[in-house]
Design a protein that fits this description.
Number of strands: 9
Helix content: 25-40%
Shape: globular
Strand content: 5-15%
Bound molecules: ligand FSX, iron/sulfur cluster
């Protein structure tokens, strides 16, 4: 049974305002999706699967339904039932059947050291398949590629110094291999679910969204956290928090990276609208290419 029109509208409801969708456009997306069901292949390299967890857990109704029935998810290592050679065969079959038409989602960084052998993602016909080879093979034949999470977008935590496995971003892998397919980065460690669903919905209905210099959709990564922070008035008054519980002060001396970070977290809010990082802790700049080495230490100790 397909997803109902009501469910689809409910899913898109959270992102529609950001995308400037009219109800009609969402209905068109539904019609298109039902007619064509764009195939999506989702692969995972060096990461923590937090991106998938963020996507699958946080959206109501069940995002798995959308992924399976709206966009026709053909391969996802975390949620698919099959495993081993059978799963790899499905992946290669789908890649050849939808060659040039499928969308590839890459989660996690790609170790390039030792010819990619630090990250073996499967076996096929007696040969180990590296994340490096898979990303290149599937990337080359995709209609478009989405790098989800800090790791796939910029290297992220697995690429932190000293990076013994040589983890790189999708962009770097593509550049080193001359792969020129359209690439969108949706960073964050993990990304907010609406950034992922919103980007996918935009690609399906309106094509590639407007991107910034880091290939991030501007609709999610254009606003500066600090300029829009509820604690900004305290920053301007130079009232700085000394401890996490101090809610009448700016958190910059605890290590907040809001001034150098651009995303809509301050208005999108996390955990289904319950909270966001700066409210009780700090922004660690997880959507920026400098994360994590360039923003370390993440937390600062105040002198009191
Ligand atoms: Fe990276 Fe995804 Fe951070 Fe984790 O796998 S973006 S480590 S939250 O989840 O790639
Ligand atoms: Fe800026 Fe962070 Fe202070 Fe908010 S808490 S005003 S983002 S430095
Ligand atoms: Fe990342 Fe900062 Fe947003 Fe938290 S507030 S999710 S650290 S960009």
């Amino acid at each position: 049974m397909g997803i109902s029109r009501r469910d689809f509208l409910k899913v898109c409801g959270g992102t529609a305002a950001f995308l400037g969708f009219s109800k009609l456009q969402v209905l068109e997306a539904l019609a298109q999706a039902k007619a064509g069901n764009p195939a999506v292949l989702w692969i995972q390299g060096s990461g923590c699967t937090g991106c998938s967890v963020s996507l699958l857990n946080a959206v109501d109704p069940d995002i798995a339904k959308v992924l399976l029935e709206i966009i026709s998810l053909k391969f996802h290592p975390t949620v698919m039932a099959s495993s081993g050679e059978m799963a790899m065969a499905k992946l290669y079959d789908a890649a050849s059947k939808y060659k040039g038409k499928y969308f590839l989602v890459v989660e996690g960084g790609i170790p390039m050291g030792a010819n990619g052998r630090y990250c073996i993602v499967g076996d096929y016909k007696g040969k180990e398949v590296t994340m490096l080879d898979l990303t290149k093979k599937l990337g080359r034949d995709a209609a478009g590629v989405l790098a989800v999470g800090a790791c796939a977008s910029f290297g992220g935590i697995p690429a932190a110094k000293p990076n013994p496995t040589g983890v790189k971003s999708v962009y770097t892998v593509f550049k080193s291999s001359g792969i020129k397919v359209p690439l969108i980065n949706v960073p964050g460690c993990p990304p907010h679910p609406t950034w992922m669903v919103g980007t996918i919905a935009h690609v399906l209905t309106k094509g590639i969204p407007e991107l910034d210099g880091y290939k991030r959709p501007k609709m999610f990564f254009n606003d500066n956290i600090h300029d829009n922070c509820p604690y900004l008035k305290y920053y301007e008054q130079q009232k700085f928090a000394q401890s996490w519980g101090d809610k009448q002060a700016c958190r910059v001396k605890l290590g907040c990276k809001g001034p150098d970070t651009n995303s809509n977290c301050y208005k999108r809010i996390w955990n289904n609208g319950v909270n966001w990082c700066v409210d009780n802790a700090i922004c660690i700049g997880c959507v920026e290419p400098s994360f994590p080495d360039g923003v370390s230490p993440l937390y600062e100790q105040t002198t009191g």
